[in-house]
Amino acid sequence: MRLDQQIDLMKEDIISAVQACIQIKSVKDIEHASEGAPFGPGIKDALEWTLALGKMFGFTVKNVDGYAGHIEMGTGELLGILGHIDVVPEGDGWSVPPYSATIVDGKILGRGALDDKGPTLAALFAMKAIKDANIPLKMRVRLILGTDEESGWEDMAYYLKKEETPQIGFAPDAEFPVIHAEKGILHLELAKSHATSFPHLVSVRGGERANVVPDRCDVALKGISYDDLAKLLNNFSFPEGVSGTLVSQKLEQEIKLIFKGVGAHGSLPQNGKNAVLHALKFLRTLPLSSDEQQILDFILTNPGTGFYGEGFGVALSDEPSGKLSLNLGILELTSDNTRLVIDIRYPVTYQRDDVFLPIEKIALNEQFRIKILNHQEAHHVPKESHLVQSLLKAYSDVTGLEPFAFAIGGGTYAKALPQGVAFGPTFPGEPEVIHCPDEYIPINNLLLTTKVYAQAILNLAADV
């Protein structure tokens, strides 16, 4: 039986497995971390569930102290497939419960459906199809299950210290056909204490992760007339998809507002509408103190100008990977302190300090402390390499679509390998829904992706 027919027969099992995995809320929860669960109980449950599925399929499995795990078949040199089972927080704006894995119009909806539980399980079922077909392999195929991809990659650092590093492989965690270059990633924290407490801005809070465009911002104010505030809010012009709402009663001392925007992946800030920045634009119209105005102006002028680093003067670009991107992912402002976290994706021909030093100069000039929270070097595998060409052939042969290799701003586990690339699951021309409300994977795409991954494994590892 041909592999694609075998995968078609597994359709209901694949769908059920993806739904079951989505229903495990595997968001990082350090507060409840414990031995064997360094990133919290939800991620532990998702890791153990996936390893159990691999064991049921007859593969060799290993849990590496809860930091990661792997599912393996075959003998010989190692081919790595690097997925992850942790997810970003669900956020607001869902039409279905975000962990229900509801099927709507042929799509499985849920946090992690596309990033990265669906494609990770597609790779697992691709391995199962090859095993069931008794196709001999000349390599070990190891599906590595990460658990901290959406945060600091502590999982992969721990795993690769303990286990063998595959020399080649792919991450099923981005887009088709093949991503051969990934921009450098730099997360910066800027913080300062205010010389005197702010008289009006009690708190402005928005965003949970640096790599997500905030879709909500909560504001608390004092010392401003409720009626004046209501009038200004009513007359303020927000773009489509953005709103501001008064949520306090007129007689309350502190007035609270909620601003809603549109979430997106932090590497594509232009695809979202940053609720924090739109909240600050409204707040800037209020009769605030000069110190309050100054802090808002700094944020709106620097991280808040453009999507490509224009405000900080780091709008870099190159031919292999395109423009730098910059996202204001977190703002925590109180009457006494300000903290903001920005996510930067810089082009592959540049170095960290080409970006960091200009921003540091501006930050220090405004008395901000600046700290590097996370940094990943840019990564590049030549288009003509055996790895890239083998994957392009698998993609083209299975789908009939044009094969090409390109660069992205998103960072995947491909960077963890000497020769690693990102490979699927989003097909060209499809909407960007990872990290968004109603994240989904179409069932037809899930099956097609499984077939592509099976052929890719054969192209790289089959003993023919």
Task: Give a written overview of the molecule.
The chain has 464 residues and is an alpha+beta fold. The protein contains 11 helices and 26 strands. The chain has helices at 3-9, 11-22, 41-56, 113-132, 154-162, 226-235, 275-283, 290-301, 352-365, 386-399, 443-461; strands spanning 60-64, 68-73, 77-84, 103-104, 107-109, 139-146, 168-171, 174-175, 178-182, 184-193, 201-206, 212-213, 216-221, 243-246, 255-260, 264-265, 317-318, 322-323, 325-334, 337-346, 369-376, 379-380, 405-408, 419-422, 425-426, 440-442. Strands 14-15-13-11-19-20-10-21 form an 8-stranded antiparallel beta sheet, covered by helices on one side. The chain is elongated, with a radius of gyration of 23 Å.
